[in-house]
Amino acid sequence: MGGHSIRVVIAEDEVLIRRGLEAVLAGDAFRIVRTVATAADLIAAVAAEAPDLVITDIRMPPGFTDEGLAAALEIRRTWPAIPVCILSQYVLVRPARTLLDAGGGALGYLLKQRITHIEEFLSDLHRIVAGAVVFDPILVGQLLNRAEQASTPIAALTPRQRDVLALLAEGCSNAAIATRLAITEKTVINHITSIYETLGLKIDDDSHRRVQAVLAWLSDRWPGK
Hints:
It contains ten helices and six strands. It is α/β, with parallel strands linked by helices. It has a six-stranded parallel β-sheet with strand order 2-1-3-4-5-6, with helices on both faces. Helix 7 (159-169) crosses helix 9.
């Protein structure tokens, strides 16, 4: 963003969560330009403000079902260049898969408890703004565990390959994976090649499509709710 503040619109009906977001973002490079409590107001705010990032809950008034998700999808269709981060209290695979199917990068699905890990949360937001696809480690972990318990090819992966796969699904680059696991990038690439061969996935140099492929494969095997 060229050193300028990252302009954010927040859609969250719970006051405590909204205040928490405001406090966390205030200490970083973000500037909140509008906070709203409904999906309809979110669309209006995005149209008026053209923000650099949208953060929205899934379940919002009036029905508390998927209003926030529907708004996020509309934002992706109407303003595809605007990064969107979904914040949810629950691990909901179907909304995550719906977002993946919408395509593109600059997308995140994080759990609200992630906010308490301030440095990691801010890092996630910066990665989303930069164009990455970032999914919460807890969501990724549950997908991997369910896939392994279902006797899918995940069970054939070595523990190290499983670690690499988890970081892939979180949207980490090869360099970031190498740093996190204290291995070389060449070793990471070798692991990724083996993982993709085992899972029957097409290797793609585009990191966004790479994350989408892994998460789509996992969510196919755990439809969730």
